[in-house]
Design brief:
This protein is mainly β. β2 and β3 form a beta hairpin. The strands form 3 sheets. A 4-stranded mixed β-sheet has the order 3-2-9-10, with no helix packed on it. A 4-stranded antiparallel β-sheet has the order 5-4-6-7. The protein has a two-stranded parallel sheet with strand order 1-8. Helices cover 5% and strands 37% of the residues. The protein starts with 5 loop residues before the first strand and ends with a strand.
Length: 132
């Protein structure tokens, strides 16, 4: 099985306890419109981080006879966003958090490349970078 063009792989790491954050819902979204005061994004795919904090298969559900790999084609110059819904994860571990969602917006310069979006998070801070 091929991996999706965007993954949240390796480090969805809860840095406050030094462990991967499992069971966190993740969405891949694409900018639809930037007209007016608010931008509109459309959801392309949903996923959930696994026991190792990875979300390798951000694809929409395929209909019978379709390949999931054919359902998402990144486009050069387009804006995309990965949304991590972190509140339930922290509440499930008995902690409050300041960032109930973390939204990471990025631009795709080359649609043939893979985009890996790691997230290191604690209840009151987060950081990210472009991984490989």
């Amino acid at each position: 099985m091929s991996k999706s063009p965007v993954t949240c792989h390796g480090e969805f790491l809860d840095s406050s306890i030094g462990k991967p954050a499992a069971g966190v819902p993740v969405q891949l979204q694409q900018l639809r419109s930037a007209d007016g005061p608010a931008s509109t994004f459309e959801t392309l795919a949903d996923g959930v981080t696994d026991y190792d904090g990875r979300c390798m298969q951000l694809y929409p559900e395929a209909a019978p006879g379709q390949k999931r790999e054919d359902l998402i084609k990144l486009q050069a110059g387009r804006l995309y966003k990965v949304v991590f819904k972190t509140k339930d994860y922290f509440e499930s571990t008995g902690r409050k958090c300041f960032y109930p969602w973390v939204e990471i917006t990025f631009e795709v310069p080359n649609p043939t490349e893979h985009y890996h979006i790691p997230l290191l998070i604690s209840p009151y801070s987060y950081t990210t970078y472009r991984g490989s």
